[in-house]
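lol forgot to send this yesterday, sorry. struct tokens for the thing we talked abt
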């Protein structure tokens, strides 16, 4: 699999640089390292909240969900059977992915194709669990995510297993959640009101149920703070996350 300061190219997931503990990190880089790890279910506001927080903190922003979505797009584009776990894993290993870690400039590219908008389509949301629950494909993506986190130094990374698997040693670990009703409403607004109630339930609740078979992102692990945004405005949620980061800086 082939993300950069602004646009990073995700190297082959089997690349030794993607292992858990890169050996070429300088002491100065490690001293500057501050990782903000945020997990949560679909529609909890992870992407928008974390991107805004990264912007205010002048940190890099890593949307790991975009990587799973890009892998889904790639498999569908190549006609890979998403039920064939081996074929999916091979496709993910070859995935020519580049994504931005600049919160002000979010782009996702697969090969020569800009898929920034395409990966947010309903057809991707309804199929992405096939990648997320494929353990071999997930391991490849997690390895690449760990490398990106280490390279960024100061980063807000969000997904479903950042606090427990990708960056369990992060200085700030948060589970961002909201009630099912609120999450469905938010996803409906995000999709511009084009989705039926049934479609939204597939994209949010059904997807969460499938993904939870691979990783627990509905309950906070030990040491992970819970931030429930059900009754908070967007700005209040961003403020709460930024405050947590500032308290450890």
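and heres what i got for the seq, position by position
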């Amino acid at each position: 699999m082939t993300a950069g300061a602004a646009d990073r190219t995700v190297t082959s997931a089997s690349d030794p640089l993607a292992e858990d503990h890169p050996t070429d990190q300088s002491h100065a880089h490690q001293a500057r390292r501050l990782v903000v790890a945020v997990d949560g279910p679909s529609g909890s506001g992870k992407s928008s909240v974390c991107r805004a927080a990264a912007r205010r903190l002048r940190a890099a922003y890593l949307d790991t969900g975009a990587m799973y979505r890009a892998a889904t797009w790639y498999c569908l584009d190549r006609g890979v059977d998403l039920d064939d776990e081996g074929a999916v894993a091979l496709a993910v290993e070859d995935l020519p992915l580049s994504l931005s870690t600049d919160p002000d400039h979010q782009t996702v590219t697969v090969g020569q194709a800009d898929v920034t908008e395409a990966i947010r389509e309903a057809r991707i949301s309804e199929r992405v669990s096939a990648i997320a629950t494929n353990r071999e494909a997930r391991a490849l993506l997690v390895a690449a995510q760990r490398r990106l986190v280490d390279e960024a130094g100061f980063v807000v990374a969000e997904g479903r297993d950042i606090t427990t698997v990708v960056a369990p040693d992060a200085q700030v670990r948060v589970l961002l959640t909201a009630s099912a009703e609120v999450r469905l409403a938010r996803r409906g607004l995000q999709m511009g009101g084009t989705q039926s109630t049934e479609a939204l339930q597939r994209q949010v609740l059904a997807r969460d149920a499938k993904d939870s078979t691979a990783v627990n992102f509905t309950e906070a692990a030990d040491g992970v703070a819970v931030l429930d945004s059900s009754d908070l405005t967007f700005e209040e949620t961003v403020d709460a996350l930024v405050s947590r980061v500032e308290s450890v800086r």
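The domain at 7-12+34-246 is CATH 3.40.50.300 (Rossmann fold). anyway ping me if u want another try
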